[in-house]
Specification:
The protein is α+β, with helices and mostly antiparallel strands. It has a 5-stranded mixed β-sheet. Strands 1-4 form a two-stranded antiparallel ribbon. The termini are far apart. It is built from 9 helices and 7 strands.
């Protein structure tokens, strides 16, 4: 471990690779065989990518807004945002799509930034319910729109590849804030929008 890692309490690259070797051996493998020699390094590199969300602040993506929208104040919806996450209980993948909508109150944000907010939270160990709430609350806190709606549809491999082994099952969670929570018509309009998107898959 480097001196900087020791001071910060961070796990070093070497320690991460050693941990992978331990798991390989525990599973019954020989980490020193040719096919597995570079596996610890590859796994550590993959983890840096899969969990890069810990190094990013999703609020920064929403900081730059646009107010010259000619008075536009109707619903904005970004559907079918693909994401890859990992279950914090079994470290197994969660693969799915998120749908995000908000009612602007004088300012809007670039649509790619909504996808980036989803990505940041997905690239952490997650519980789908928590991720759904985090995305919605982040958008609400930074943009302060009249309302935010988030629906997440995810397939959990901790359920499909272990345990009950049920394939073709997905979990749907939602978080409604502001007008989307208070007004059934607004909520229904959002749900119609994302159903249209679902039908095109």
């Amino acid at each position: 471990m480097s001196q900087s890692d020791e001071k910060s309490g961070k796990v070093s690259q070497a320690q991460a690779e050693d941990a992978v070797r331990v798991l390989l051996e525990w599973a019954g493998e020989d980490p020193s065989r040719e096919g597995l020699l570079d596996t610890p390094k590859r796994v550590a590199k993959a983890y840096r990518d899969w969990f890069s969300g810990y190094q990013m602040d999703p609020r920064e993506y929403l900081a730059r807004t646009f107010e010259e929208v000619a008075g536009y104040d109707e619903m904005i919806v970004l559907r079918d945002i693909e994401f890859e996450s990992h279950c914090e209980h079994h470290m197994a993948p969660i693969i799915g799509r998120a749908h995000v909508g908000y009612l602007p109150d004088g300012k809007v944000v670039g649509i790619s930034k909504l996808a980036r907010v989803v990505d940041v939270y997905a690239r952490r160990f997650q519980v789908q319910e928590k991720m759904t709430a985090q995305i919605a609350q982040c958008i609400q806190d930074v943009l302060q729109p009249r309302g935010v709606a988030v629906v997440v549809d995810g397939a959990h491999e901790c359920m499909t590849t272990r345990g009950v082994h049920k394939r073709g099952v997905s979990m749907v969670t939602s978080k409604m804030l502001g007008t989307f929570r208070e007004d059934a018509r607004t909520r229904a309009e959002f749900l119609r929008f994302i159903e249209t998107g679902h039908g095109k898959r």
